[in-house]
Design a protein that fits this description.
3 copies of one chain form a homotrimer. Chain A has 345 residues and is α+β, with helices and mostly antiparallel strands. Chain A folds into 2 domains: 116 residues, Rieske Iron-sulfur Protein (3-layer Sandwich), CATH 2.102.10; 216 residues, Naphthalene 1,2-dioxygenase Alpha Subunit, Chain A, domain 1 (Alpha-Beta Complex). Helices cover 17% and strands 34% of the residues of chain A. The first copy, chain A, has 4 helices and 19 strands. In chain A, the strands form 4 sheets. In chain A, strands 12, 13, 14, 15, 16, 17, 18 and 19 form an 8-stranded antiparallel beta sheet that branches. In chain A, strands 2-3-4-9 form a 4-stranded antiparallel beta sheet, with no helix packed on it. In chain A, strands 5-6-7-8 form a 4-stranded antiparallel beta sheet, with no helix packed on it. The two termini of chain A are 14 Å apart. The interface between A and B is medium-sized, with 26 and 25 residues.
C-alpha cells in the first residue's frame, strides 16, 4: 500500500557523492532503483537507475560532466534523462530517455517524488527543521529494516511500547503505556496525518536522560508529534523535574526528532532519523552519546518488529485484536488507505 | 498432509527451562509458533507464541510468576491464555486471549495436541517407555531436517536402506535389504499405524555392535517396530550369535528405540530420538559411544533424504516406482491420508 | 524458452572422472540432474541422476563396474539405465529403469541431447574444432552464471559492448561500438542461427593484444562469428597493423574462440569457453596469460549481466527499447522462439 503522489526521503545529503567523485549513488524506493548524483552546479538529479535499452543499472556506468554513460553499450544521457548519444547511431530516437524524478533537498534530507511529476509540490515537504538548524544539534542516522514499512509506522504511532521495548533505554516507566494519548487528525499546509500528544507526570527519568545530566528526582514528560504522509514523524519531547515551571528549561531535557520511513520493497524499508537537542546545552561528547542511545533503542525496535513480521501468518492482520492504543495507527492507516484508493481511481 | 487430532512431540522435557530461568522456550509445530514454559507448581503450559494484539512473539517477552508479559505493549496473559492486564486499559476485553494447547508429558517427551482441544486424549499417547525406564539406558537426541516429515517417515518405514545408507554403521550386510519384512496394520488401544517385523539370520555384526563387545561370529538379527500416527517409531531390535538360544541374552545385543517426527513447516521437521540398551550391561562410556554411533548414522540418513528432497521436481511423487519394500510406507501413507481426509470432512 | 531437440554441452571431457575414480560427476541441464560417467571401455554414459524408485540422486551411490548402485535402497542399473538388480526382489519389473541421454564427445566438449532420443543427430554438433586441434592452443574455461542464459546470449550477439564493458581488456576503443556489423541468417549443415561480421579499421590494439607482442601502431580488427542453436558462438577474430596485407600474418593476431551456454535452470547457466591462438606463435607462458585476460573480461560480462538481471522488473522485456545493435539478438531470439514453438506443437 504505497502512496505515490508524495515525497519520500531517498538519502541524507551527505550520502550523495560530490560531482568529482567517481562513485554513483543508487537506492531502491517503492521497488524502483533510483540513482542520485550532483551536477557540476551542485544541483542534484534523481534518475531511474535503469538504461532504457536493456535495463542495465546506469550506476555501474560513469559520469561524463553532468551526463551519465551507460556501462553496457555506451548510451549517454543528459541530466534530464534524454539520450544524447548512441555509439554507432546517427539519429537518437525520441523515445530514448530515462525517467527522472522531481527532487528536493530540505534540511539535509533528499526527497524524491514518486507520483505524477507535474503534481510535485514543495509545499508538501515536511517541516524537518531540526535536521539542520543552528539552535539544534544531532547526528544523522540510517537503518535498514527487513520488514514492511507500515509495521514500523505502527510502532511509531503507539508509544506505549516505550514502557516495554525500551524499558532500559528511552522508556524507564510503565506509566508511559498507562497514559492515554490525545490523537487528532492533521490536514493543513499540504500535510495529512495525525497528531499524537502524550503527557506523563511524575515518573523517573529514563536511562538515556542521564547522558545529559544526573536526574535523581521524578520528571514530568511529554511527547507531542505529527505523523504525516507518507510516513514521517516530527516530534517535540522532553521532561522536566516535577515542580519546575513550564517556562523554566534550566533543568529540562528538550528534544526534537525527525524520523521517516521509505519503502524499499514490499518487505523492506529505509529508516532515516535524528534526534536533536538544543545547541550549547552540553559538551560535544554528549551528541555522540545521545546518538548511541538512540541507535541502541532503535535496534530494540528493529528486533521486535522483525520478530513480529516473521511471526505473521498470511492474512494475519484480520486476526489482530485492536485496542485503544491503536487509535492513532488505525486512524493513520485508514487515512492512508483512503488516499491510496483515491489515487488509484 | 497433517493430521491434527493427535499428539506431536514438541520437546524433550529437559529442553524446557525451569520456572526460575528467564529464557522462554519456543518451537514451531505444523507452522504454528508455540511457547512452552513451566508454572511454579511444575506443570507445563503450551501457549501460542503470538500475542493476540499485534502478533508479536510472546517468547521475547517475560515471565511474571505464572503469567507472561508481552514485550511489545505489555499485555499480561495468565497460564490459561486469558489476558489479565492491558496497561492503560481498565476493562480487558473478553476476546483478549491467546490460544493454549493441551499438553502431556510422558517418559520425558513433551506432547502438544494440535487439533480440537476437547478431543485431546492421553490414551492416544504412544508407549515410549524406554525413554525413561530404570531398566533401560539412553541419551536423548534431537535433529532438525530441512525436508518434509513424510520423506523421513518413508525412510523409517523401510529398513532395506540399512544395507546401503548405513553399510558402515547400523547395517553391515546386504542381507537386511534382501530380507522381506512382515507388515501388519495396527489399530488398537487408540493407536493406528503399521507393525513391521524383519528377521535376518546368519549375518555379520554391524559395525556399531562392536561398541558393546567384540563379535567375531555371525548373528541372527531382528527389527520389530510399530510406526504409529502421526509419525512415531517404537522398536525392539537386536542380534544374538547364531546358535544361541532365544532365551539366552548373555551374548545378545538388545535395543529399544523411540523416534518421532514433528512437522515444523511443510518443508522442515523436528526429529526426536533415542536408542536404549539394557541398564547394567556395560560400562558408562558405552552409552555415549552408542549415542555417537546413532547420530553418525542419522546424519547419513539426513544427507540422503535431503539430497533426495532437493532432487524432487514438482509432482515427483506420481512419477516414483513403487516396489515391494514400499509396502509399509504405502500402507502407512494411505492410512494417514484417509485419516486426514476424514478429519477435514 | 528452451529448445529440446538439440545438443547441449554438459562438461569439458577432463571434468568427467576416469572409470577407476570413485567420484561421480553430476550437473543440472534444463533443470534435469544428469550424471555422466565413463564405462570401462572408455565410452561415456549420461544418465538421469535420479533413481526411478524414490528419486534419490544416483551420484551419491557408487559404481560397480559399468553399473551404478543407488545409495539409498541398493537398486543396480546398467549403463543403459535398465535396472538389473533390486535387493530382495527376484523379478525386476520392466518399468524399473532410469532415463539415459544420447551423448557425444566432440573436440573435448561433452554434449547431451535433451529432446527425443531418436532424433539425436551428430550432424547437428557445432564445429568447435579449435577446442582440440594441433594448430591451435588454448586453455579450457568454465563459469557459472546466476542469470538466464538468453541474457548472456544477448551479450554475445552484440559486440558493441566491448567498447564499454571491456574498455580496459578486450575492447580498447569506442570504434567497435560505432562499427555496424553485418548480420546474416545461417541455416545449413544442420546448423541454425546467425552470422555476425564486424570490421573495424585503424584502431589502437586492445590491451590484451599486448600479451602477444608490443603493438604501437593502429590495427585493422575483425570479428566474424556464427551464433548457433541452442547457444554456441564460433568465432574468428583478430587484428593486423594498418597497411599489412591480408595475406601477411607475421604481425597479425589471429584467434579462434568457441563458447557455449547451457541453461542449468530458468535463472542459472553453465558457460563453457576457450579462445585459441595458433600453435607455435609464442612462448608457453602466453597461453596462461591469454586465458587470464579472457577470464578477467568474462568476469566483467558476468558482473554487468548479473547487475542487469537483478535490475529487471517482471515483464521488463516489453519495456526495453530496441536499437540497431540489437539486430542480431532480435533475429536470433525470433528464430529460437519459432523453433521452440514448432517443437511444442
Amino acid at each position: 500500500m504505497w502512496l505515490r503522489n508524495c515525497w519520500y526521503v531517498i538519502a541524507w545529503d551527505h550520502e550523495i557523492p560530490s560531482h568529482d567523485e567517481e562513485r554513483l549513488f543508487t537506492r531502491k524506493v517503492l521497488n524502483e532503483p533510483i540513482m542520485v548524483y550532483r551536477r557540476q552546479d551542485g544541483e542534484m538529479v534523481a534518475m531511474a537507475d535503469k538504461c532504457c535499452h536493456r535495463h542495465a543499472p546506469l550506476s555501474v556506468g560513469r559520469r561524463e560532466g553532468d551526463a551519465i554513460r551507460c556501462g553496457y553499450h555506451g548510451m549517454l544521457f543528459d541530466a534530464t534523462g534524454r539520450c544524447i548519444e548512441i555509439p554507432g547511431i546517427e539519429r537518437v530516437p525520441a523515445q530514448a530517455c530515462v525517467k527522472t524524478y522531481p527532487l528536493q533537498v530540505k534540511n539535509k534530507w533528499v526527497f524524491v517524488w514518486m507520483g505524477e511529476p507535474e503534481r510535485a509540490d514543495p509545499q508538501m515537504l515536511p517541516d524537518n527543521f531540526s535536521c539542520d538548524h543552528p539552535n539544534w544539534v544531532n547526528l544523522p542516522g540510517y537503518m535498514h529494516y527487513d520488514t514492511p514499512y507500515l509495521l514500523i509506522a505502527d510502532n511509531l504511532l503507539d508509544f506505549s511500547h516505550l514502557s516495554y521495548v525500551h524499558a532500559k533505554t528511552l522508556g524507564g516507566s510503565p506509566a508511559i503505556a498507562q497514559a492515554r494519548p490525545q490523537v487528532e487528525r492533521v490536514t493543513s499546509n499540504g500535510q495529512r496525518g495525525v497528531k499524537v500528544s502524550r503527557f506523563i507526570d511524575n515518573v523517573p527519568a529514563p536511562p538515556f536522560y542521564q547522558r545529559f545530566r544526573p536526574f535523581d528526582s521524578p520528571l514530568n514528560r511529554w511527547f507531542v508529534y505529527d505523523f504525516l504522509f507518507p510516513s514521517t514523524l516530527l516530534m517535540s519531547s522532553g521532561g522536566r523535574p516535577v515542580g519546575d515551571s513550564p517556562d523554566d528549561d534550566r533543568r529540562a531535557v528538550r528534544l526534537h526528532s525527525c524520523q521517516t520511513l521509505t519503502p524499499e520493497t514490499e518487505t523492506s524499508t529505509h529508516y532515516f532519523f535524528q534526534q536533536s537537542h538544543p545547541a550549547g546545552v552540553s559538551d560535544p561528547a554528549v551528541k555522540q552519546s545521545i546518538y548511541q542511545s538512540l541507535v541502541e533503542a532503535f535496534n530494540e525496535d528493529r528486533d521486535m518488529i522483525t520478530a513480529q513480521f516473521r511471526n505473521l501468518a498470511p492474512g494475519a492482520e484480520a486476526d489482530m485484536l485492536p485496542l485503544h492504543f491503536d487509535v492513532a495507527l488505525v486512524q493513520f492507516r485508514k487515512m492512508l488507505q483512503d488516499a491510496v484508493a483515491a489515487e488509484q481511481t
